[in-house]
Amino acid sequence: MKIPCFTDPLLMPSTGETAEQRYAKAVPLAGTLGQAYVERRGIPLAVADTAGVRFDANFGGRPAVVCAMRDPMGSMASLHGRYLETRRGQNKMLTIGPGGGVFGVLGGWQAEPLILVEGLFDALSLATCGWPAVATVGRWAPWLAEASVNRTLWLAFDTGRTGEAEVLKYRQRLLGADPHRLPPPTRCKDWNTALAKRGRLTVANWLHSHCAVLP
Description:
Layout: H1 19-25, H2 33-40, H3 45-50, E1 54-59, E2 62-70, E3 76-83, E4 93-96, E5 103-105, E6 114-117, H4 120-128, E7 133-135, H5 144-147, E8 152-155, H6 161-173, E9 178-181, H7 191-198, H8 200-211
Parallel strand pairs: 6-7, 6-8, 8-9
Antiparallel strand pairs: 1-2, 2-3, 3-4, 5-7
């Protein structure tokens, strides 16, 4: 199956703002529609705040929760936004910037274990359960190849053909790592679905039981 290839705009459409400029205009989640949105998806406000998630009432024309995707030095590489609502024909997300970054929680790529997930809310779901994660948001960050050398790598992408295609891609690209598949709990498409259906404790136990298999 062909993996989607994203061509993100360098600047915010219509305003010409950079990722840094747009992120600076976003506000903390508390008291906004963004707070209600993340909490509706099972993410405590404190977890989202700690991860740097903010609210932008006009992110390309619609309200969204936004997060910085950063390079290994901590500089912003892109700004990723997840829209609160979508109508038919509208995109669920918008990412701007030159790319080459990831969204990390609880230490991200520097933490142990190194867990790669697909989306913003997958990473936030793992953080809710007390686990670090790195969300790729479907983008490739070349420096991950060096960052994962001689490390156990958990490929925790979604279930289904697209997720398995991502697993294969990262196995092929991160040759210096020791990669292992870490699927979401049974009958759950992704980690946020698992959090909503199974609850924090069950997902935390699932992560511990799978990651503890290796010495």
